């Protein structure tokens, strides 16, 4: 086996055993479908899907501590509402 083949094999095993590809519970599946329908496929939707699937898993760790996917989604939505309330929007210049 080549070095590249070994790396790919190791990565594939890691993904399979991580639970990322395991089927979600019915309630989680409904949340996933709702988020995909609501937002289309974009960075926020990927975050919303992760928050629906693994709400309490760590999404980000920095010097201030860790944030779960649920917390990150909540903070992202708060920032989006603040921007919208201040007049930001699609095809609008904002400084």
Note down, in words, how this protein is organized.
There is one protein chain. By secondary structure, the chain is mainly α. It has a domain at 24-85. The chain is built from 4 helices and 2 strands. The chain has helices spanning 3-18, 26-39, 43-53, 69-85; strands spanning 58-62, 65-68. A two-stranded antiparallel sheet has the order 1-2. Helix 2 (26-39) runs antiparallel to helix 3 and helix 3 packs antiparallel against helix 4 (69-85). The N and C termini lie far apart (54 Å).
Task: Please give a quick description of this structure.
The protein has 95 residues and is mainly α. Helices cover 61% and strands 9% of the residues.
Question: What layout of secondary structure does this protein have?
Answer:
Blueprint: H1 3-18, H2 26-39, H3 43-53, E1 58-62, E2 65-68, H4 69-85
Main sheet: strand order: 1-2
The ordered string of helix (H) and strand (E) elements is HHHEEH
Q: State the total count of DSSP E strands.
A: 2
| Dominant shape | globular
Number of helices: 4
- How far apart the termini lie comes to 54 Å
Content of β-strand: 5-15%
Mean pLDDT: 76
Largest sheet entry: 2 strands, antiparallel
Low-confidence sequence ranges? none
What is the structural class? mainly alpha
Provide the helix percentage. Answer: 55-70%
Rg measurement, Å:
18 Å
GO molecular function, one term: ligase activity
Keywords: Ligase, Membrane, Transmembrane, Transmembrane helix
Organism: Mycobacterium kansasii
InterPro entries: ANL_N_sf
């Amino acid at each position: 086996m080549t070095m590249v083949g070994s790396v790919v094999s190791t990565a594939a095993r890691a993904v399979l055993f991580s639970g990322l590809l395991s089927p979600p519970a019915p309630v989680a599946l409904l949340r996933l479908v709702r988020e995909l329908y609501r937002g289309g496929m974009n960075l926020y939707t990927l975050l919303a899907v992760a928050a629906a699937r693994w709400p309490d898993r760590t999404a980000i760790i920095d010097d201030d501590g860790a944030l779960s996917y649920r917390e990150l989604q909540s903070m992202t939505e708060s920032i989006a509402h603040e921007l919208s309330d201040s007049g930001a929007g699609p095809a609008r210049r904002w400084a």
